[in-house]
Amino acid sequence: MRITFPFRLLLLLLPALLQIKSTAQRAYESFWSPIQWEDEINDWFVAQRMIPYGNVDATAHREAALSLVEQKQIARTTTLPVWQQQGPRNIGGRLTDVEMPASSLQTMYACGASGGVFKSTDAGATWSAIFDGQPSLSIGDLAIAPSNENILYVGTGEPNAGGGSITYDGAGVFKSTDAGATWTSVGITTSRNIGRIAVDPNNPDIVFVAAMGDLFGNSVEQGLFRSQDGGATWQQFLFFNDSTGVIDVAIDPSNTNIVYACSWTRIRRIDRRNYGGPSSGLWKSIDGGTTWNSIGTGNGLPAFDYGRTSIGVSASQPNILYYMVSNQQSVFQGVYKSTDGGMNWTRTNDTNIGDVFNGAAHWEGRIKVDPTDPNIVYLIGFDTWKTAD
Q1: Residue 156's pLDDT is what?
Q2: Rounded CA separation 58/362 (Å)
Q3: How far is Cα 365 from Cα 379, in angstroms, rounded to an integer?
Q4: CB neighbourhood size of 256 (10 A)
């Protein structure tokens, strides 16, 4: 057999190649040595607990452990609601909204951060995807028109500004007049992210959309939008600057001329993040959203640059409001209550909650009031909290 030149060259180089492979293999195995990595992990674990005093404070550790035991004992003696997972079960992921029409305990809608809208008509036993044909499956919020439950509005684009995560942009607002069977685009197509939608309880054509704009850039299509013709045309309100949007909006059901909205300054870049500022805060309109006044700091509300906030209006006693506040560092700063439509505020007994958002109020934050009892309130953060008094 005649040996060709390339093959002869390969034979000559083979010992050297084997030696290189052997050296690389040893380096690889050494680098990924479990013992080495266990040591480094242990060093890191201890180092985190030595800062800033250079040692692990045994007294503080013991007090924390005893506190944990005490909390567990309290939890064992406290009756808590029993939760069962109801799906959709095709894949795991965040849900940004869940809605039910007032007339049915069987029908519900679940909105995925990047998975579209699902509908159940048997109290969650089975689900159907009803939004898959649309240009964006990232959902910010869904609203059911109280006066006509076949009319739905969906705002696409998850508004939550994850610290190290990228949320998906939306494609505006969509409307259905047949309970989700078909959909039509009704505008605000470049707002990118929708925080909340509120529909007038008496007129399904009057709609407010809280828009947060581009997550990673400056945007002029953000703020609060109002339509008085079912989404055919829109007017923009509460535009502050190209870095401030509106994250929440709520209508007084007893007087639909009264509307509340929460503005939020949010700057998100690869190299910096700012989740608050002087333009963040609570606003009130008494003429159906045409003009707005700031419910500023004072009268019981703390004075600092707010981060993300949320407003809850009691349907049974609309003068009762609950306002969740976080600061510019996305740290929970309390739940405040007003019994006079926002003129005066008192902080509720929320100190046992601690940092309900785990330092991530830019990622979650909503407060909801039971429609029949103003004393029952749900605070939705990293955990979900409930008060009945």
Answers
A1: 97
A2: 34
A3: 8
A4: 16
